[in-house]
Design brief:
Layout lengths: L3 E5 L3 H12 L3 E5 L11 E4 L1 H9 L3 H7 L1 E3 L5 E3 L4 E3 L9 E5 H9 L7 E2 L4 E6 L4 E5 L2 E5 L1 E4 L6 H6 L7 E12 L7 E5 L2 E9 L2 E9 L10 H8 L7 H6 L7 E7 L7 E2 L2 E3 L2 H4 L8 H18 L3 H31 L4 H10 L2 H7 L23
Parallel strand pairs: 1-2, 1-12, 2-8, 5-14, 12-19
Antiparallel strand pairs: 3-7, 4-7, 5-6, 9-10, 10-11, 13-16, 13-17, 14-15, 15-16, 18-19
Helix pairs in contact: 1-4, 1-9, 2-3, 2-9, 9-10
Length: 384
């Protein structure tokens, strides 16, 4: 008999979990609250650890075809255009940049037709020794396992972890956009109190993100594009050009938050995954990547352990220390890159670092986070 899971959330983490479970012979129902499947956030990069997770999910080739090499971590600049570090022509890139929708599509194509149900808002989760049931708009779905991949404001976390604190505002806000501008290399420009990130994302497009310090959350502007354009008007090209080339209605404004560390990612037969478990600031580019790792490790544990409870204990023991350490590092990095007081020290340190040492640090195995290797996902035993 085929084993059944329920995945709450149809974003990158939820689809990765469904694809991973399929790899080990399970079936899954993916419940997505939105009326249609779409990713918010415009663009992102994936590091070598995430790319290995995609390989383990069986979609590595498709992901590499959808992504674009980016040298953002090799091209560091000041707002007047001067380079602190510069990628050399022909340098290999450890990072691939994606439009979020492109990576989501790769994962969706790895999930069988009929597994994803949109417009499905979870209202209750009940479990006992035999299984777990999710109530959704008056309809119930049951299985052996629930994977909650429903984001930083997870309904499942609120229901089963009622004492967990809400998302924490990190004192920073960001504008994001996709511009129809071709041939733009990846870069990070460090200004006082903020930075501007650029990734090429294919098909003549570039993703940009402008991140600054903010005293309080939820401050919004009548014309968000005009506000960004005003703030970066004197910054080097192509920054003003990218903002100008982005449709006003497509400029996204978000506040940057993360989660306080949870004491466990599991409750009975329910596992939190991705942002629902360990939402982190984007400053290490690891939010989606850690979700992909979660999916592979969870499926490997389910395949290897004799019970769901044992599998989830293993998942929690393997994932919680790594993801919470990554979140702490991302929070610290974000403070350093946007702190006005630390700007001079940070840029001086980067400028003084030998280029060869900088390149070693951003190589595919240049740091412990990127060196992660996925566990093997065994193929299901054929049934006769």
């Amino acid at each position: 008999m085929t084993r059944q899971a329920i995945v709450v959330g149809g974003g990158i983490g939820g689809l990765a979990a469904a694809a991973a479970l399929r790899r080990i012979g399970w079936q899954a129902i993916v419940l997505e609250r939105a009326a249609e499947l779409r990713e918010i956030g415009a663009g992102m990069s994936q590091a070598p650890n995430a790319l290995r997770a995609l390989e383990a999910l069986g979609v590595g080739e498709q992901a590499r075809a959808a992504g674009v090499p980016t040298h953002a971590s090799g091209n560091l600049r000041l707002s007047d255009g001067r380079y602190l570090q510069r990628a050399r022509p022909g340098d290999a890139s450890a990072l691939l940049a994606f439009h979020r929708a492109d990576l989501q599509r790769v994962l969706l194509e790895a999930v069988p037709d009929g597994w994803v149900r949109t417009g499905a808002e979870v209202t209750a989760v009940r479990q006992d020794d035999d299984g777990v049931t999710v109530a959704c708009d008056g309809v119930e779905a049951s299985g052996e396992l629930v994977v909650a991949a429903d984001g930083i404001r997870s309904t499942v976390r609120r229901l089963l972890w009622p004492d967990a604190p809400p998302p924490r505002f990190l004192g920073r806000t960001a504008w994001l956009g996709i511009a129809e501008v071709a041939g733009v290399p990846g870069s990070i420009t460090l200004g006082r109190g903020g930075y501007f990130l650029i990734h090429p994302v294919g098909r003549g497009r570039a993703y940009w993100a402008y991140v600054i310090t903010a005293d309080q959350p939820d401050v919004r502007y009548e014309d968000e594009k005009a506000e960004v354009a005003r703030r970066v008007a004197t910054w080097h090209e192509p920054i003003p050009q990218l903002v100008e080339a982005t449709p006003a209605e497509a400029v996204i404004h978000i506040d940057i938050c993360d989660l306080d560390p949870l004491p466990t990612y599991v409750r009975g037969r329910v596992a939190l995954l991705g942002d629902a478990a360990h939402a982190m600031s984007p400053d290490r580019g690891q939010g989606a990547g850690q979700s992909l790792e979660d999916a592979v490790v969870l499926a490997a544990a389910v395949a290897a352990e004799p019970s769901i409870e044992a599998a989830l204990r293993r998942y929690d023991a393997e994932r919680r220390p790594r993801t919470q350490a990554t979140a702490r590092g991302a929070r610290a990095d974000g403070h350093r890159t946007t702190s006005t007081a630390a700007h001079r020290a940070l840029t001086s340190m980067i400028r003084m670092m030998p280029a060869s040492l900088w390149r070693r640090g951003i190589a595919a195995d240049g740091n412990p986070t990127w060196r992660w290797r996925p566990p093997h996902l065994p193929s299901p035993t054929p049934r006769h």
